Amino acid sequence: MTSLLWTEQEAEQMTAEELILASYERFGDKLCLTCSWQKQSSVLVHIVAELGLDIDVIELDTHLFFRESYETRERLVERYGLKLIRPEIITVAEQHRREGPNLWERDPDRCCHIRKVEPLLQVLEPYEAWISGIRRDQSPSRADTPKVQHSDRYGVWKIHPLADWDEKRIWAYIRVNEIPFNPLHESGYRSIGCIPCTRPISPDEEERAGRWADSDKLECGIHVTSPLSSQGAT
User: Fold this and answer.
1) Which stretches does DSSP call E strand in the chain?
2) Torsions phi, psi of 150, nearest 5?
3) Mean pLDDT on 156-161
4) In this predicted model, what pLDDT tens digit does every residue of 131-151 receive, in sequence order?
């Protein structure tokens, strides 16, 4: 396991900018940032640009995103000159052929594994560290997220610069810096994923309550710390 130049406790005291800069100084071109074009993606892309860092940006596109998510991507690409890395993923039609139609309705864990986890495993192979936008206030399942942790599952360090930011701070940063953001956030979609598995929510619900709302599923699987199961493998 590649070591850090600072302790995980020291990372907790760093600002988002300090942690990203320290990670870049440690990992260089072995550091990447993943984006799914939610508000956290907007913030992280802006911070990286403001720091003047050349960090690979990986788009986790399931081919089932909302039109607004793709439009947000294009605005961010244009403003910040992003060159996106896109992992290979089977088409939705091919998934229908292999797994049957509308897998997301019958087995959402399996669908997420095929369309998110497997592509991420593939694309992370050249890297030693991965910046993600998850935050502690998003849901109970993320409440204990450290700013830095090693993932045996992916064989990389996971960097969470925004772990201690709340939703209010995210929005304040976006407004002050006039950063492009996904307009669905203004229509009740506080957390945005794939079209079949995302719905708008009311202000009193948890931020991620609109994801897989008709099931007990809480996470897509890419941030689960447990080893990959044989059931999930193709």
Assistant:
1) 31-35, 56-59, 84-85, 129-131, 148-151, 156-159
2) -90, 135
3) 96
4) 999 999 887 878 899 999 999
